[in-house]
Amino acid sequence: MRGMVRALVLASLLLASPAAAHTPKVGELAPDFTLTLIDGSKVSLSDLKGQVIVLNFWATWCGPCRNELPLLDAYYHVQKPTGLSVFAVEDQDEASIPLYKLKPFLAKLTMPSARKIKGGYAPLEGFPTNYVIDRAGVIRYAKAAAFDLDTLNAVLVPLLREAAPAGGATPASGKL
Questions:
Q1: I need a surface site. Which of 49, 96, 150, 161 has the fewest CB within 10 A?
Q2: What is the mean pLDDT for each group of 10 consecutive residues in the chain (176 residues)?
Q3: What is the distance between the alpha carbons of residues 45 and 16, in angstroms, rounded to a whole number?
Q4: Strand order of the sheet with strand 52-58?
Q5: How many other C-beta atoms are found inside a 10 Å radius of the C-beta of residue 160?
Q6: Minimal CA–CA distance to 133: which of 154, 155, 113, 110?
Q7: Please, are residues 141 and 26 in contact by the beta-carbon 8 Å criterion?
């Protein structure tokens, strides 16, 4: 009995450890992730090597999210040739919303939309939450706030001007 109690205490400490609840932070290497896109395909961080990546967490009930998504989508459309990848990640707590109800809205976007993410990423203090990962795989921005055009330019343009690390894919190579 005593051994079982010890095992339960140890298990609860491991589950509550800071490492288990670690949120990616600016300046750290980005933890791997796997996105399940609306079409069922999967994309991971390693698939996007050499790209500048924006993970945008949004919710259907969030007014700032609904205003930000068209801006992000237009920015992605213009900057995609320079190596920008943007993913709109729907709030996983809303998984009960049927996909058929979301598809008409998501069909208006050119950036990929995800229904699910595996990895250490989650919304921060609220919605929208944006993570930006540079070409070398380092988190350069993590904030719960909607982007505006000035902030997008200030955060992304310098990163898009950086060369891809040696061995990384480039937009011109056609390989991700």
A1: 96
A2: 44 39 86 93 96 94 90 97 95 62 74 90 91 97 96 98 73 36
A3: 26
A4: 42-44, 33-37, 113-119, 84-90, 52-58, 129-133, 139-143
A5: 17
A6: 155
A7: yes
